[in-house]
Design goal:
With about 425 residues, the chain is an alpha+beta fold. The chain has 13 helices and 13 strands. It folds into two domains: about 140 residues, Chloramphenicol Acetyltransferase; about 240 residues, 2-Layer Sandwich (Chloramphenicol Acetyltransferase).
Amino acid sequence: MKYKAEIFDIWQNLWKTVYEPLIRCRIDFAGRVDLRVLKRAVDLSIQTIPLMACCFSDSRNRPRWVEKNFTSEDMVRVFEADGADDADEQAARLFSADFDASKEPQLKILLVRRARGDSICAIVSHIVCDGVGVKEYLYLLAGLYAALEAGGPVSIPPFLPRGLQPLFKGVKLGEKMRMLRSKHETHGFANNKEQQGAGFDKNSREPRMETRRVSGEDFEALKSRAKTSGATVNDILMALYARAFCKNAGAEKIMLPSTMDLRKFMPAGESFGIGNCAGICMCHISVRAGDSLADTLSQVSGQMRRHKAGNAILKSVLLWGLAVRFLPYASLKRNFTKIVAMPLINYTNIGIIDRDLLRFGNLPVENAYMASPVKPGPYLQITASTYDGRCTLSCNFFGSGADAKWANALLDDMLAEIAALS
């Protein structure tokens, strides 16, 4: 069977000129993973999302998925760690690993054996799916693992279409034209003078992976503050990011994008397979000396409410779809970074990792979080994800020791302002 390269698959593949488009998830267990069961679960999961066992080829006029019949033997690797410190260091090092989506499978599962419990570092090609898609895949994998471990019947969901056509089901031409004429800023289709990078070393190839965990108590205080302010948790995390960035960069304004899951625009009852289905909302935020968190939050929540009020965010899907359809692929590939500008400062909230769906049978999960691709300077991205009432902030980049110090100061300032809410 041949699998079509969808328009956002092509989008993510072309970002390889800037960074390797890979999404990561770390899962820490309070026990030992059954390797045989895990490998069998991976093999079965390929029936639902066969692209994991394919390579992505853009060598012809149009990109395509190429079947390679990879199996779990190609995707799962086991690493033994001596002590707790060594295990954490090894997991962090493995977590920064990458792969070539044109030559290797689209999934790597790196299993670190620890004395007190194993860790899984799952690395998934962003060409296959976005953050929500990675969560859906991990839920699938956990469910298959649990069923196999229990020895009962195993139900394997079918492969579903991944195209974005359902987003526009019932949307007439006039409405599409209104979307195209809207003032919504499409993700990267124009440079913006408000952009400011982190000033990281552009030549450094040393991966840095910095994380901070927001405790359950502090996260409850953050949620409470968001609710009383008429905002969302996503809004307040964006506001905290903007404030910390401006403080450390000596800036007074920031253009900060936020990812929005477009699946909410799918018609009721419409099936959509594991894939890419995300849009970007741009927020222009000023942070002046003396501004309170409430001042910054008001700006963010107001802009985000306007973004969510209609369907103008689908403008980017329409534009990119037209580009893929009518431009010769060789030209699109050659000029990609000229017509598309990745925002220098990025933010993604992958949301809640559902503990009830991430159940690997009787094997308890102590913690889980997701992280964004490792980006080179001057790009900076913070990713938020929540598991079991605790939020993890992660920042992955290539940089020097000085760059790491800068990123850590930013994360520490965010955590300090969150702690002040308790």
